[in-house]
Design brief:
16 strands, globular, four-stranded mixed beta sheet, about 15% strand, about 450 residues, D-Maltodextrin-Binding Protein, domain 2, alpha/beta, about 40% helix, five-stranded mixed beta sheet, 2 domains
Length: about 450
């Protein structure tokens, strides 16, 4: 799912038909009706997911629950429209029993009272579910808000550093590169520069790259500096960690020649960086596994590299110093993804939980993949299906256990923009301390003052 651009969408008033056929209604024949809602529709948006629900989930669940009729409530609209519809349904205590939502909406929905912790809805069976042991604690975080589990994560992704092995060899750098600090990245960049590589390091910066700046650059670096943008009910302001992140940007874009400042300001700078990496002009690039499977993919990629598997290396993002990352980690990452939640107003909440748990079982997860090599939230499934792609297996095995997520709060997109503006200022020549102070001032205006900001 794409993150919506207007955070006030939950509060928006819209003329929409509220669907109340879910919530575990009785069909009149003695059977129970459960409903699944998702922003997918056969022949349209997320068609494969809609087909899976209709052709596998529903018939397979009904086989073992003969008194239950499951209906699918498809949508094929812009994510923001879908979010508004779901919010209005839940506000009216209507809607489907099992609902697909973007993980970034969880906190917002929870704070509005639209969703409740899974155990509050599904009862003791939630904690006894076998699937929890197959989902890494860090991945469970996609559906967690304020320490409580609100949803089950679907597939997810991870951020790493990609590097060009050919350029590394030219610079005298190892074929298998495993940086243990930010200084290791800078040192590698300097060797690449000496070897004549046009752009030694590409870390997304500025406002033109939008959320890619925040997710591929700022937030992983912030995690590496031992901090998250929102923790313990407070937003992170001009802390030492934020100054460290901006200082790292300054090392790359402040005249060192390690990065290309102009590229960060171009409207299609991210796409151009993809093309330049594929052309052997960028040595190190921070991106999600999307870059591997959809950008430089040899056959159908945006910027295909026929020799991808031989030339493109990948490695975990190091903390600023060993052990200096969040949770005392040596390496860090950021992830996104969708979750499924329970409608707290379901008339049959325990059966709704059974349906939700079934949709996240190993059998269901493998069925949804339909033979495709993609990262699921379950380690048992990943161990089986990712053997054909070492990079995605690396993400599942090495990166996801160290990952973190954006806060699912309504003001986050505006905070993200303020972070992007801070990096843009550094790229344009402003000092890290000045950019951090300006960010602090903007943040106070966004989140209701200094009382809601921590260090």
């Amino acid at each position: 799912m794409r993150f919506p651009s207007r955070p006030a969408v939950i509060a928006a008033t819209a003329v929409l038909i509220l669907t109340s056929c879910g919530t575990g209604t009785d069909s009149g024949s003695g059977s129970i009706t459960l409903t699944i809602a998702a922003n997918s529709i056969q022949g349209g948006k997320n068609s494969e997911s809609a087909t899976w629900i209709k052709q596998w989930v529903i018939p397979e669940f009904e086989k073992t629950h003969q008194n239950v009729k499951v209906l699918f409530q498809p949508s094929g609209v812009d994510d923001e429209q879908y979010k508004t519809k779901i919010a209005l349904d839940l506000k009216s205590k209507a809607g489907a029993d099992v609902i697909d939502v973007d993980g970034i909406w969880v906190g917002e929905f929870a704070q509005a009272g639209y969703i409740k912790p899974l155990t509050d809805v599904g009862g003791p069976a939630v904690d006894q579910w076998e699937g929890w042991s197959q989902i890494p604690q860090a991945v469970q975080g996609l559906g967690i808000f304020d320490g409580k589990k609100y949803g089950l994560p679907q597939g997810t992704d991870g951020r790493v550093l990609f590097y060009n092995k050919t350029l590394f060899k030219k610079a005298g750098l190892p074929d298998t590169w495993e940086p243990t600090s930010w200084q290791d990245i800078i040192d590698a960049g300097n060797k690449l520069k000496t070897a004549g590589v046009p752009v030694p390091i590409q870390i997304n910066a500025g406002t033109a790259m939008g959320e890619a700046t925040t997710m591929q650059g700022v937030l992983p670096l912030l995690a590496g500096a031992g901090s998250e943008i929102y923790a313990d009910g407070k937003w992170t302001g001009a802390s030492q960690a934020v100054k460290d992140v901006l200082g790292f940007y300054q090392q790359i874009y402040g005249g060192s020649g390690l990065g290309d400042p102009k590229l960060q300001q171009e409207a299609k700078g991210r796409d151009k960086s993809f093309a330049q990496f594929a052309q052997g002009k960028i040595g190190i690039l921070a991106e999600s596994d999307y870059f591997w499977r959809s950008v430089v993919e040899p056959n159908a990629g945006v910027a295909p590299m026929k020799d991808r598997d031989q030339v493109v290396g990948y490695t975990r993002i190091p903390a600023k110093e060993p052990g200096g990352g969040i949770r005392g980690q040596d390496h860090v990452s950021m992830s996104g993804g969708a979750v499924r939640v329970l409608n707290p107003f379901s008339k049959n909440p325990k059966l709704a939980w059974e349906l939700l748990a079934f949709m996240h079982s190993a059998a269901a997860t493998k069925s949804q993949l339909a033979g495709q090599v993609r990262i699921s939230s379950r380690t048992d499934v990943n161990s089986e299906v990712l053997t054909a792609d070492p990079m995605l297996k690396y993400i599942a095995d090495e990166v996801l256990p160290t990952t973190a997520y954006r806060p699912g709060l309504a003001v986050y997109p505006q905070v993200s923009t303020a972070l992007q503006e801070a990096t843009a200022a550094v790229v344009s020549g402003t000092s890290a301390d000045e950019a951090a102070s300006a960010y602090q001032a903007k943040l106070e205006g966004l989140v209701g003052g200094a009382a809601n900001i921590g260090g």
